[in-house]
Design a protein that fits this description.
Layout: H1 7-13, E1 20-25, E2 28-32, E3 36-43, E4 51-58, E5 64-70, H2 75-91, E6 98-104, H3 108-123, E7 128-134, H4 135-141, E8 147-150, H5 158-165, E9 170-172, H6 175-179, H7 183-203, E10 218-227, E11 230-239, E12 242-251, E13 254-255, H8 256-270, E14 278-283, E15 286-288, E16 291-293, E17 300-301, H9 311-318, E18 323-327, H10 328-339, E19 346-350, E20 359-364, E21 367-369, H11 399-416, E22 421-425, H12 432-439, E23 450-453, H13 457-474
Length: 475
Amino acid sequence: MAQTFDLRSWIREQPHKGYLANLDDDDHFVLETDFATAMVNFYDMAPDPEIVELHIEEKATGEAKFFLHFHPVDRDHSIQLFGEMVQALLAIRGHQRTEVLLCCTAGMTTSFFAQRLNQVAEAMGLDWDFSAVSVTEAYEHGRDKAAILVAPQIGYQAKRVQQVMGDVPVLPIPTAMFAAYDAAGCLEWVRDELASRAREAAEHANEADSMQTEGDGRILVIAVHAASGEVTIHHRVYDHGIVATEGRVIKRRLTLADITDVIDTQRCACKAGGKVDAVGVALPGAVHEGRVNIKVTREVDLTNGTDGFVMGDFLAQRYDVPVYLCNNANAAALGWREAHPEYQDVTFYSQATGWAMGGQGHVVGGRLLEGAHGNAGEVRLIVNRFSFSNPLHYNAFNPVDVIEVVGQVLAMDCATFDPEVVAVRCDLLPDMEEVAEELAKYVDRSQQPKLVHVCDYDECILAGMLTRCRQELRA
């Protein structure tokens, strides 16, 4: 087997602090805490180096919290990735309890009801926890909760909260139950509602719409984006436009090695079905002449430890196929427009939950607009000059504040590009009518572009990178 580092032996030699380890199966190691399980799986790919899979699953929810593949060739890199997995495993704490959030105008009346619900849950021997906040805080604090309960006095806001929160159930508390402080009845009602919704979800699971297009050869496309403290790398191999394989990497930090790990393992896995003819990578940050302009933070470092690092040249030298880089919002604009060819002038606005500002991609006259330095659509260059009701860093989780940012950015777009349509990816703003009302402060409704809410950002990016690769290959 071709490899230079024995990761199995190294793991066996490590002290197991904070977790239990089952290393009896030579190809499948298990690391476990009270809250999550990590798997280290080894796959033989002879004559190429084997592939290692690192996977963490939260016990309470079954949700993947960490997932990636790599070749254990480089000692330091292998140890680093294992260490990141262990850190992520140990960081998963206290989520086995069923946590429910109550909200009202200011969180005062619901806080007393939450206390009563906790008392009843304890008396019934249930591991449930109830807390209360104002409705504006619910958007930030409710994302990891089993449910959000809305007090009757703001019941009219339940629909909007549900639109923003997506998969988190939002339940208006029955008025009679809340007025009587019937905590026992409320607890049983919540349990029944959650059980019923879980059954319905299992019975009526919907598959996401595909945005596949015809393509040339076998193309590996990679979509990278971050949201809510998590980096997702979604990779897909298209074989003449048809999805052949796909998967995701889930991490807390993004480095260049994460990109090369995906390319290395996918090219190795694809050999049986034919080589990859091109690779497309969509990344955050401005992309120009092979450079990716994005600040180094605790979450992102794409510099490879070198000032002025040119990622495009590095990847071109490392691989024997063409590699194309693109900003992820630009790729999303291409992908969305590919699915809607009736539009010539398209703006794609993306703002991740928890981020104070977003990014954009522009297709003008059917062609992607990137600018002389790759800065077209880089909202970060101008947003700090705008004027808002609250300081910009308060906007991240409050849709009332976020809509100010979006409204002013779209007004700028109308003044510079005058797009026919704006596709908006922002979980906090699912109602495009509200966005149109905000934009009307600057642009007459009759002069506004059509506004369309987008749910699946990855699909747009992947389809756009496929289009970009096809364009480059045919150039």
